[in-house]
Amino acid sequence: MKVCVLVLGLALVLTVCVARSPYQAVLQHSRIRGRQQGPNVCAMQQLKGTNKKYFTNCKQWYHRKVCGKPTVITYECCPGYEKIPGERGCPAALPLVNIYNTLGVVGASTTQMYSERAKLKDEIEGPGSFTFFAPSNEAWAALPTEILDALVSNVNIELLNALHYHMVNRRLTSEELRHGSSFTSMYQDFHVHIHHYSNGIVTVNCARLIKPDQHATNGIVHVVDRVITAISNNVNTFIEIDEDLETLRTAMAAAGMAAMLENEGQYTIFAPTNEAFEKIPPETLNRILGDPVALRDLLNYHILKHIQCAESIVSGTPMETLQGTVLEVGCDGDQMTLNGKAIITKKDQLGTNGVIHYINELLIPDSAKVLLELAEGSSVSTATKLFVEAGLTPHLTGSEALTMLAPLNDAFLPSGLAIQELENRGNLDMSPEMRQLMTNHILKEQLSSSSLYHGQELETLGGLRLRVFVYRNNVCIENACIAAHDKKGRYATMFTVDKVLTPPTGTVMDVLKAHDRFSLLVGAIQTAGMTELLNQQGALTFFAPTNDAFSAMSQPELNKLMRNRQQLEAVLRYHLGVGILVSGGVSSHTRVQPLQGEKLELGVRNYTVYVNKVPVADADLMATNGVVHAVNSIIRPLPPKVDREQADGPAAPLRSASSSVADSKSFRNDDLFQKVVRSRSSRTMNKSQ
C-alpha cells in the first residue's frame, strides 16, 4: 500500500513539474540556487554595469553570462516575500494591499505617481480584480522627453488612456500568460499581446516582465521594463507606410507576399532598410529581383515562423525561417544580432500579427545565390580564385545545373603554397594542366551529397568520369572527401572537399611505373607475374612498398625473395586489398581483406594513416582500377595477441632484446608471415597436382 502511495505521489510531483510554466521552472531554479541564503531567497543574475536582472536558469548559472556579457549573482527576496530584521532570508510573506499601494512596494513608484495624477488611484484602490502591467521607474525615465511631456500635459486623456492600456480587467498570473495569447485591455478594447518563451522570459507587447506575480487584494501587478503602446496595425501596414522600407515594399509586392503579411499570424520580420538593399552589388540585386523564385526565397529568409521579441533573447539560438533554413538569432549586450552580426537598427516594432526588427544589411540565403556567390567569403577562397583564373566564371554565374567540388584552402598547403602565394599576388600562371584540373572540379549536374551512392560515376565539365566511394565515416569523390554541409544555390550546389582532386590517370600498374620510387616494386611485380592483375579492370587498394622499403632488407634477403616467385607473389598479394579505400575512408579499426592472408588493420593518428602499424608515406594515388598508398616498410601480419587499439599508431613497446634482434634480421623469420607464404605455396602445389 505504501508503495502505491509513493508511486502516486511521485506521479503527482512529475505531473506538477510537467505542467509548470517556463517562468515558474526558472523561478524554481533561482529559489534552489538561493536557498543557502535562507528561506524564500532567489538567486538573480545581473549584467555587470547595468540594472538588468534575470531569474537564472541552469545554463546561464554555469556560463555566468547573459547576451555574451558577464554577470554577477545577487540574492533577493522571491516574489511575494520580504526580509525581517535579524532573521536569515525572507521568511515573511508580503502583506496584501491594494494595487495602488503595491505599486509603491515593488519599484513602480513612478507608475503610482502617474496613476494619482490621472485620477486612476481610486479605481486601483477600490473593488475589482485587475492585472496591471506596471512600467518600472527606469521604463518611464527611458521614454523620449517629447512623448513623456505629451502624456503628462494631458493627464485626463492621454496619460489615463496609456495607463488603462497597461491594465486588464481580470487577474492574470504568470501561469495564465501563455505564449501567443492576447487579452483585452481597459483602453478601448485594444489587446495586449503575451509571449511566454521556453527560457522563462515573459513579455507583454515585447516588454519584459521583470517582477511578475506581485499579488494585491484587488488584483496582481507585473512590473515591466518599458512603457507599452496600443497596437492597431498589422506588420504589412508598417512596411507600407515607412519610407525607410520602400525597396522592401517593392520586393514584397513583386513576390506577391504582401497579402500573407496581412493575415493572422505570428511573424518576426527582419526588415532590410533601403540602405541594406543599396549595399548589394547592382548586378546581384537585379538578378534576384528579376527571378521570382530567388526573390521569394530571399524574402522568406528574413521571416521567422513565430514572434521573437528582442528581450526574449539571452544567447544565440538557431531559428527556422519561412524559407526553410535557420538564422542564428542572438545578442551582444543590448544589441540583437543575426548570424553573429549586430545589424539590427530598430527593434520590437509590434503589429497585430507579428513584430518587425529593422536591419541595415540584406540577408541572402544560399538558395538565391549562384555558384560564385556560394563560394565567396568562405573557406574555399583559394579554389574560387583558381576557378576564376581558369576562365570558368560563366559557369559559376550562369543558370546551369552544376555541382562544384571546392577544396578547402588548407588543401593547397603545404604542397600548393607557391601556387597560393602567386595567386595572392595576382600573377598566377594558369597552365593548361591547371585549367583542366579546375574544370574537372565541376560536375555536370546539380547533386545532393545525401543522394550519392557507392560506385556512382559522375561526369565533369572536362569530360572525365569520377567515382563515388561511400564509407562509414565519409563520402568521397575519388580522393576528395566531403568536408562540410552542401551549399545548395539557385541552380547549382557546392561541395566543400578536403583535398584537391586527383583524377585517375591510368591503371595501378601505370601509376607505379610513373613514379621512380616504385622501380624495384615494378620489377618485383613483373617477376611475380602479377602485371596483368594490376592492369585489368577491378577495384584494388595497393599499399605499395617504395624502393626504401626494399632497401631496408639485406641484399641476401632481397635476392632470396626475388628468386622465389611464389614467396614474392604471396608477399605482394598481402599488400593488395580488396576494394578501393582512400585515406578519407579510414577510421579507427578499419579492416581490409588482402588478396592473401589475414585482414590488414588500419587507423589514423595525427592525420597519418597506418596499416598494421606501418605509416602510409603518400596516400591516394588514384588509378582507374584502384588506389595506391606508398609505404616505406614491408607490411607484416600483426602478432596474434596485439592490442588492437595500437593498430592505428606507431609500433607497440619494444619486447625483449633477443626477440627484437630476431625480428630485425628478416621478415622470413616471422611465423605468421611464413604461414601466409606456406598457405600460398600449398595452394599452388595442389593446383599443379
From TrEMBL:
Residues of the signal peptide: 1-19
One Pfam family in the UniProt entry: Fasciclin
Domain FAS1 residues, every copy: 93-228, 232-363, 367-501, 505-635
Residue numbers spanned by region Disordered: 640-666
SUPFAM superfamilies reported for this sequence: FAS1 domain
BP-aspect Gene Ontology terms: cell adhesion; extracellular matrix organization
SMART domains in the cross-refs: FAS1 (SM00554)
GO CC terms, sorted: extracellular matrix; extracellular space
Complex and partners: Binds to type I, II, and IV collagens.
Protein function: Plays a role in cell adhesion. May play a role in cell-collagen interactions.
Identification of the protein by name: Transforming growth factor-beta-induced protein ig-h3
Organism: Dicentrarchus labrax
